[in-house]
Amino acid sequence: MESEAAVNLKWGRGRRPLTPLRVIRGVLCIVILVLTAFVLLVYGGFWSGVVLRFFSLHYSRKTTAFFFGSWIALWPFLFEKINKTKVIFSGEKVPARERVLLLANHRTEVDWMYLWDLALRKGREGYIKYILKSSLMKLPVFGWVFHVTEFIPVERKWEADELTVRQMLSTFRDPRDPLWLAVFPEGTDFTEQKCLRSQKYASENGLPHLKNVLLPKTKGFYACLEHLRGSLDAVYDITIGYLHRCPSFLDNAFGVDPSEVHIHIRRVALGDIPMSENELSSWLMETFRLKDELLSEFYDRGHFPHEGTEADLNMVKCVGNLVFVMIFTGTCTFLTFFSSIWFKIYVSLVCAYMASATYFHIRASPIHIR
Q1: What's the confidence (pLDDT) of residue 361?
Q2: pTM for this structure?
Q3: Where are the alpha helices (DSSP H) in the chain?
Q4: Which of 267, 272, 316, 345 is the most buried (most CB within 10 A)?
């Protein structure tokens, strides 16, 4: 595996300088994203994700997707239009309106955020969900968003996670509900130390010796297919590569990295994926062996094969979405600070509920009215 420094030297580019302008712009963007998320939660998310859920799970999800799809769309706008990160798609061009399982490698802590760039291009930004570590669900405001949008929290120990995962997956079966569910079978982001431990385990157990990904874990992926296979259209095998340097969250926000994100997509028909857990484990291992080879070629050539499968983001659409979010949040903020005491009481009660729901995973039980 080529070192990070070797890749930077080879392609002649590194991180952008952290100028005062980038710091100011990054802080401003983070503040706007936090504040808009908070207002959307209080005035949209509570009613769509909690109250409406008691009456119709389907319409609750549609309304929640409308509000938080508009917020999620702000992130690709930040990455691609403000910070000038090039997001380059390659591989297969995928249909726009499929119910899918996304199977991705986990190179760094922000991989999952770049899946929003693909979801936005397919009109699924409000319907993408993740299986992610439970500590992220406890973040102020962002954790509340993850809760309302039904991300699945895990401790990364199957004995502790199985009941929660299966219970939530069982609510995602309705084919009327659009769904993009993202799974990272490695279970953690890639580092050289973790890679060495993974390679040692592989040598001891007769498994492939991987250089650019970790050995995948099967049980969570198998549970997803077991519960959802009948309502899915396909699995998207996604491989993410960073040409110059793996970014952190703050690198993203300040626009110093990454300068390029490459996303390779392979669409897999469900009929090509084994049914039994043992056969699926072998299939998943082979899939990650192929990912490893693909990433080795990527680091050697600087790109994945068959580039250019997706167009650039529509600037007019992005700005229109930003204007909508700002007008909505501005109006709600005005009502909060300049109207009666009842608005303030309402905001306080919603915040108390969302905080408790985030920490204790309180979920409204859907009561369907036919």
Answers
A1: 59
A2: 0.89
A3: 4-11, 20-40, 46, 57-72, 74-76, 111-121, 142-148, 158-169, 192-205, 219-228, 249-254, 277-301, 315-338, 341-360
A4: 267
